[in-house]
Design brief:
With about 140 residues, the protein is mainly alpha-helical. α2 runs antiparallel to α3, α4 runs antiparallel to α5 and α7 packs antiparallel against α8.
Length: about 140
């Protein structure tokens, strides 16, 4: 998921989405290694890769038994990412990423991270995305 070839990254993301349900008990462990790169790919200049990354995260959120770990990963590797491009892309799509988490988990930590980021953020588009994500939450 870090290769320079964006088409290869996209194909790998699709493959992971296909095999994810078959991983069983190892799924959460495997995805803990994948999530940082997956969230990083959301800042790539490739809409197909972004869309497939969101699709994979949503697929994972539907079948994981540890939604709190997924939420932490979205916060630490996404919303709080030191790379502003990654943080912005995750914030812009956070409502899509956490849809399945919202149905079963308390999203206090995600809301807190978004509030903190809103306070620190200068980009008006990102501030609007944060406000919009609150309406979904």
């Amino acid at each position: 998921l870090q290769d320079e070839d964006l088409m290869l990254r996209t194909k790998c993301t699709k493959l992971i989405c296909e095999i994810l349900p078959k991983l069983g008990a190892d799924m959460d462990t495997c995805m803990s290694f994948v999530m940082p790169n997956l969230l990083g790919n959301m800042a790539a200049n490739n809409l197909v890769l972004k869309r497939e990354s969101i699709k994979l995260i949503r697929c994972f959120s539907e079948i994981t038994s540890d939604k709190n770990s997924l939420a932490r990963s979205i916060i630490w590797e996404g919303i709080d990412n030191k790379d502003p491009a990654i943080a912005r892309e995750v914030i812009l799509t956070v409502d899509k990423l956490i849809l399945n988490i919202l149905q079963t988990e308390d999203c206090y930590n995600i809301v807190t991270a978004l509030c903190k980021r809103h306070y620190l953020e200068d980009n008006k588009k990102v501030k609007k995305a944060i406000k919009d994500s609150f309406s979904s939450i």
